[in-house]
Design goal:
The complex is a heterodimer of chains A (724) and B (342).
Chain A lengths: L1 H12 L29 H6 L10 H6 L11 H24 E2 L2 E2 L2 H7 L11 H20 L7 H26 L12 H8 L2 H4 L12 H28 L6 H9 L8 H10 L4 H10 L10 H26 L2 H9 L4 H12 L1 H17 L2 H6 L6 H10 L5 H26 L21 H30 E3 L3 E4 L2 H7 L1 E4 L2 E4 L4 H31 L5 H13 L2 H12 L10 H24 L4 H9 L4 H12 L1 H17 L4 H4 L7 H10 L3 H26 L14
Antiparallel strand pairs in A: 1-2, 3-4, 5-6
Helix pairs in contact in A: 1-6, 4-6, 6-7, 7-23, 7-24, 7-25, 10-14, 10-17, 10-21, 12-21, 14-17, 14-26, 14-29, 15-16, 17-20, 17-26, 19-20, 21-32, 22-32, 23-26, 23-29, 24-26, 26-29, 27-28, 29-32, 31-32
Chain B lengths: L1 H15 L2 H5 L3 E6 L3 H15 L2 E6 L2 H10 L8 E3 L3 H9 L3 E2 L11 H9 L4 E14 H6 L20 E4 L5 H14 L1 H14 E5 L4 H7 L5 E5 H10 L3 E4 L7 E9 L5 H11 L2 H5 L9 E2 L23 H4 L2 H15 L5
Parallel strand pairs in B: 1-2, 1-3, 6-7, 6-8
Antiparallel strand pairs in B: 3-10, 4-10, 5-8, 5-9, 5-10, 5-11
Helix pairs in contact in B: 8-9
The chains are: A mainly alpha (724), B alpha/beta (342).
């Protein structure tokens, strides 16, 4: 607590209150007129000079909090002081931030109340940010001191922190965007406008059932998402079973293979599919010649979308499921076997039901990913319109219609919410705990034969399909003009990644280096942050109870469910102006990645944690560890697969995400995918694919390194699998 | 104010001390909506010639417009160069860009100037390109189709399922097509044409140049696009033939605007003037951009469609560029054309 009081005072007295234009990490301000220059001055110096007087009230809570020094924790006054000062300080920082902006008062009623303000202010800097976090933590410590969650400071502070940042970086921008659904053409608010936009026939039309040309986009998206959700979950389970419960020799390769599609930049899979199955695709032509038919455009529309999305999202299901399948305790399966159940019976009645949390979470992720997918519908959608692309083109299309985009985004969110609750309903209130503190030896049984054969066949077919597609992609990066001129060449790699040795080192002359380094840097910063935030959130959601937990859980899914484009635009709307002025920086990219990819960490964490017996935590707590130690020394080591999934996923997605990024990149912070999409738009496929191939190799290496670092889970005393 | 004073301070420091510290303050933020390599050439070229640092971001014209609009409370960009003229006109109409009369006007073609006057000097033409279509020779021969020469040829029943164009709701190119047809045939006959065409369309793509890329890869026979996009595919080696429709056709004017509230206004204007010079516009040849430059003295590629030999309509940018007319036409197209069975 004393720590946070000190932080509060330091940030008020010493650190510059407003954001420094050259970014948080440029320290020129130290030498440039600090501390008196208004651009760099700390709040205290501003007030002393009679400027920005609305910051004065902040002194009150900072002084008041000093009164609890010397009091004991159990003193009710202690808690009261902390709560009051924390809340008051935090609220005031934000109220003044939103109330007073670049052009003076931000709201007309404020101007009416206080008269015009001759001053204005800019985005928050170090001082403001640290001070508000200091207030936040003082507040949570007050709550804990009052006895909430057994007075556990760590848990209460974490809940407070996660809620605060999710509110700022998820709820706030999305709310700002969705308000547009109610705005009329002349800028007023109206419910009827919303209704007329919402009940549009283009969204909800059902004419395709009665022979009309097409259905509404809402139904299209829903149908596609459900199908893809099922397919990817089923295939994910197939791969998870092959890897964990079979004697298959090339498990490791299979593992790498299933990860390939998520590390593939957008458009590449679609492109490869077109070259194989498009109207002039190799396979289509071959089959058409064989059957003596005209080659058709069958790929465009639902079939193509289904193939591409299943290919792309199966790995995510796999990543979630592998942890769960590994985590099912062998002793339960052995118990069933001892009771004379056949292998098939064990699988059906013991193993499968215990995998339910994994299945449900995998389906949910597949569903949401399909809903929000942008690249595949753009390339393969044909006339099968879906919500995500419609939202994008409502914003960037010939008719700038933010209202329609907001309405479509709402429809999409409703579906997501529906899927989320369906998932909860299906899991019900049952317990899926199977890893307990008790000694746990034994190995997983092999798959029953009845299951093994179809699983092998499916896995083999799908794996070879993936291999062929990736071979095509690699090949594509080495030919002059894919599909037309098949002369082999290194040209594309030279253009993108050439470098030369000069006297003082290497000169990176290729056109792609710039975006390549930026992407690598940002992904490396974002991945650990994303994973830790996701796992901590999962811990809170599974292990703690607090008011508003359900809403909070859904909130963490929001930014993942909304298509990136909407996130991109809403981030510009929310963070281009004070108090949080972040556009044009690398920070906004990192933040957008954290909040877009965090849900995977949350889902994987929840799925794994619901298998860990709560008595493990309790044992640790009884032995005198606090909840942070318990989390760190007991739960984290058991969560390795989930940690790996979250790290890999967030690193990879930060490198391959496109739709949110496109609005957030700036000249200094250009991302690889934005570069690739520029090339694709220019039909420069060779270069785009060469760059993508390089990224794939880089990511595979990174995934390998991560796997080594995190290590494997070892529950009980199992030695290898299927060794009997 | 903060940033302005910062710029002033650093400019003064630059005068007082060495030039190197000051150079950091001399910058201009460029939003570029042309093809990536062209944008690079422009940015690096300006840096080399003036020493002013160019921070360039490339996005499509629709994306750039959305971004400028979202940023309007606190603009981050200075100049918006390239991209079809419609979003530039829309930005001018919504007061997102700033009027500027360049001394270069004497060297420009009339269409470039008329683009500027129709937007109250808030934008200017930098290149132009005619609308047309391209077809894949190999697929056309394989399907035994006659060579199309006119707009009307595309509505013939044998072309059913062979034509691709973008959706005018999402693409500026397709909206230009719709507006061109209206101006060529009149509104009633124009919509009859769009209905007849609708029957033959195999897909309305989202992005404007997608149809010709599909044609290049053999995924559709005909793609309706700007002719310079079709030429680019042909030059790259794809089996594409470019057609200037016999009835006449419309065109786009690629434009440039200065963003209202620019933080480096002087540099933005310097870039604006520089981008209109003949030498700079000739640089388009280095990157295979086949648009017609707006400076009369600039070189044009021999492969570029020759605007003089194409029958161009007198395109009414003022009327068809206005938000109200656009909304009306698109609504009508949505209700009368897009719902018909194919």
């Amino acid at each position: 607590m004393i720590f946070w009081i000190v932080v509060g005072w330091v940030s008020f007295l010493v650190l510059p209150w407003y954001g420094v234009e050259d970014g948080l990490f440029a320290f020129e301000w130290l030498f440039d007129g600090y501390p008196w220059d208004a651009d760099y001055a700390p709040a205290a110096f501003l007030i002393a000079q009679g400027e920005k007087l609305w910051l004065t009230p902040l002194i009150l809570p900072l002084v008041a909090v000093l009164f609890c020094l010397g009091r004991v924790k159990s003193d009710p006054v202690y808690a009261k002081i902390l709560i009051l000062t924390g809340a008051a300080g935090f609220c005031w920082v934000f109220m003044q931030g939103f109330g007073i902006g670049l052009r003076g008062w931000q709201f007309e009623w404020l101007e009416a109340l206080f008269g015009p303000l001759g001053d204005r202010q800019f985005g928050m800097g170090f001082g403001a940010m640290l001070l508000s976090s200091a207030f936040l933590f003082l507040f949570t410590q007050g709550i804990a001191a009052r006895g909430a969650i057994n007075g556990d400071v760590f848990v209460v502070s974490t809940i407070g922190l996660v809620i605060a940042i999710v509110t700022i970086f998820v709820f706030f921008p999305i709310a700002k965007m969705l308000v547009a659904a109610f705005v009329t053409e002349d800028g007023n608010y109206s419910i009827t406008v919303f209704a007329s936009k919402f009940f549009d026939d283009r969204i909800w039309g059902l004419s395709c059932l009665t022979g009309g040309p097409r259905c509404g986009v809402a139904w299209n998206s829903l149908f596609l998402a459900v199908v893809v959700g099922f397919l990817s979950t089923a295939l994910g389970l197939v791969f998870a079973l092959v890897v964990t419960r079979s004697n298959f020799r090339f498990k490791r390769n299979l593992r790498a293979l299933t990860v390939l599609p998520i590390i593939t930049p957008p458009f590449v899979i679609g492109l490869a599919l077109i070259l194989m199955f498009g109207q002039s695709g190799a396979v289509t032509k071959f089959v058409a010649d064989l059957l003596d038919m005209q080659p058709s455009r069958w790929l465009y529309g639902l079939p193509g979308l289904m193939i591409a999305q299943t290919l792309a999202f199966t790995p995510i299901a796999f990543l979630v499921l592998i942890g769960v399948v590994e985590g099912v305790s062998p002793s339960m399966e052995e118990a069933a076997q001892t009771l004379r159940a056949g292998r098939w019976q064990v699988f059906r009645t013991v193993s499968l039901p215990l995998m339910r949390p994994g299945l449900a979470n995998a389906f949910l992720l597949g569903f949401i990913e399909s809903m929000a997918d942008f690249g595949n519908p753009l390339v393969l959608g044909g006339n099968y319109d879906v919500l995500s692309t419609d939202i994008f083109f409502a914003i960037v299309g010939a008719q700038y219609d933010q209202g329609r985009a907001a309405v479509l985004a709402m429809v999409l969110l409703t579906f997501t919410l529906g899927a989320f609750y369906a998932q909860r309903f299906w899991l019900g209130n049952k317990s899926y705990t199977s890893v307990s503190g008790k000694g746990d030896s034994g190995v997983h049984p092999l798959m029953p034969r009845r299951l093994a054969i179809p699983v092998y066949v499916l896995a083999a077919v799908w794996a070879s399909f993936t291999v062929i597609i990736y071979l095509m992609i690699v090949y594509g990066s080495f030919v002059e003009l894919w599909g037309v001129n098949n002369t082999l060449t290194f040209k594309h790699y030279f253009t993108a990644f050439s470098f030369s040795f000069v006297e003082d080192g290497i000169r990176w002359t290729g056109s792609a280096w710039d975006s390549f380094w930026t992407t690598l840097k940002i992904a490396t910063i974002a991945a650990p942050l994303t994973a830790s935030l996701g796992l901590v959130t999962a811990y809170l959601l599974t292990r703690q109870t607090f008011v508003g937990k359900n809403a909070f859980e859904f909130g963490t899914m929001l930014s993942f469910a909304i298509p990136g484009t909407v996130i991109g635009v809403s981030y510009i709307l929310a963070f281009n102006v004070p108090p949080l002025e972040l556009t044009g920086t690398g920070i906004i990219l990192v933040i957008s990645f954290i909040f877009r990819n965090m849900p995977v960490g949350v889902r994987a964490g929840i799925a794994s944690m619901s298998q860990l017996d709560k008595s493990l935590d309790e044992a640790s707590l009884t032995l005198g560890a606090n909840s942070w130690q318990t989390f760190q020394r007991v739960i984290l080591p058991l969560l390795r697969p989930a940690i790996l999934a979250a790290l890999v996923y967030s690193f990879v997605r930060a490198m391959t995400a496109i739709s949110a990024v496109i609005f957030l990149v700036s000249a200094q912070y250009n991302m690889a995918t934005a570069y690739i999409i520029g090339r694709v738009e220019n039909n420069d496929y060779g270069l785009a694919i060469a760059y993508s191939t390089t990224l794939i190799v880089v990511m595979l290496t990174a995934v390998g390194i991560l796997q080594l670092l995190v290590g494997r889970i070892n529950i009980g005393r199992r030695s290898g699998l299927g060794s009997k | 104010m903060k940033r302005f004073s910062l710029a002033v301070v650093s400019a003064l420091t630059a005068l007082a001390t060495t030039a190197s510290t000051g150079a950091a303050a001399e910058k201009v933020t460029l939003y570029c909506s042309a093809q990536e390599d062209w944008c690079q050439v422009m940015a690096r070229g300006f840096e080399e010639e003036t020493g002013i640092k160019v921070n360039m971001t490339r996005k499509s014209s629709g994306e750039t417009f959305a971004q400028i609009k979202a940023e309007s409370a606190n603009p981050k960009g200075d100049v918006w160069w390239g991209g079809t003229g419609d979003p530039h006109l829309q930005a001018a109409e919504e007061g997102l860009t700033e009027p500027y009369v360049t001394p270069m006007r004497g060297e420009l073609n009339d269409w470039a100037i008329s683009q500027a006057t129709s937007a109250g000097d808030k934008t200017i033409g930098i290149y132009s390109g005619a609308l047309g279509y391209g077809y894949n020779k190999d697929l056309l021969a394989a399907a035994g189709l006659p060579e199309p020469k006119c707009w009307a040829d595309l509505t013939k029943p044998e072309f059913k399922g062979h034509v691709q164009m973008a959706n005018p709701n999402s693409s500026g190119t397709a909206y230009t097509t719709l507006a061109t047809i209206m101006q060529l045939f009149g509104e009633d006959k124009g919509f009859d044409f769009m209905k007849a065409l609708h029957v033959n369309i195999n897909q309305y793509t989202k992005s404007g140049s997608a149809p010709i890329k599909a044609a290049a890869r053999g995924e559709t026979t005909v793609g309706i696009v700007f002719m310079h996009d079709a030429v680019k595919q042909a030059v790259k080696g794809f089996p594409i033939t470019v057609v200037a429709p016999c009835e006449g056709t419309g065109y786009e004017i690629g434009s440039m605007s200065i963003i209202l509230g620019s933080r480096n206004l002087e540099n933005a204007q310097k870039f604006y003037d520089w981008a209109l010079t003949a030498d700079v516009q000739s640089m388009a040849l280095q990157v295979n951009a086949f648009q017609v430059p707006s400076n009369k003295g600039a070189e044009t590629s021999p492969s570029a469609p020759d605007l003089a030999s194409i029958k161009l309509i007198d395109y009414d940018f003022k009327l068809y560029g206005s938000s109200a007319e656009r909304r009306r036409l698109l609504k009508k197209w949505d209700e009368d054309v897009s719902v018909l069975p194919q």
